[in-house]
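[09:14] KT: can someone run the structure on this one? pasting the chain below
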Amino acid sequence: TSINYGVFSGCTSLTSITIPDSVTSIGNCAFEDCTSLTSITIGIVVTSIVYEAFRDCSSLTSITIPNSVTSIGEYAFYGCTSLTSSTIGNIVTSIGYYALRGCTSLKSLYITDIAKWCEIDFGDFTSNPLYYAHNLYLNNELVTALDIPDSVTRIGKYAFYGCTSLTSITIPDSVTSIGMRVFCDCTSLTSITIPNSVTSIGGGAFRGCSSLSDTYFAGTKEEWNAIEGIAYAYIHIPTTATIHYNYIPE
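[09:31] RB: done, structure tokens below
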């Protein structure tokens, strides 16, 4: 029912692992430094991927986090330099600090619920697969024009950091806050629509959005300037971008 702390750490002969549905927990560092490991299958009752569980598994090429998992711990996949794709289950609520640091070969992220993704608490920007992967797939479709669902009330920090597949974003009236560096380095983003329900935007939210040319805001200029984070250009909207006030979608 459990795989204990460090039990296969440094086992360089391992090439694949199947964790059965009887297992509910994986201990810290359980498969750390299994440098020949290329594939893992995680049972559907495991609830968390813990601290350094697969750290430095440098031959691992893909990961699928099942819908039973609610958290991915710090350094969980740190240094998995051969990872090219990741699939994240839709009940994950937190991904820890440095969880995917050094996963420089990531090319794609696959998810099934954009609302759940917006609510994930990321430890830092490298805990988001998009920092390296850049391409976001929702139900196997590449996301370019993104409509945030009405069920979302906040977009958490780092949620779309580095997502270069994004070209436009529409945020619904249900959203009141946009997190720190949430769209940082979305270099293909050309337009964003923001409702006047938003009361705060985190620092660096649009840092590096070099193609952003139009921001459509539902409220007045005075309402825009009253949003927490607007002052002193902390959100880093490019100076060349035009802000359209009192915007009403067709």
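[09:33] KT: thanks! The first helix runs from residue 114 to 118.
[09:34] RB: yep, looked fine to me
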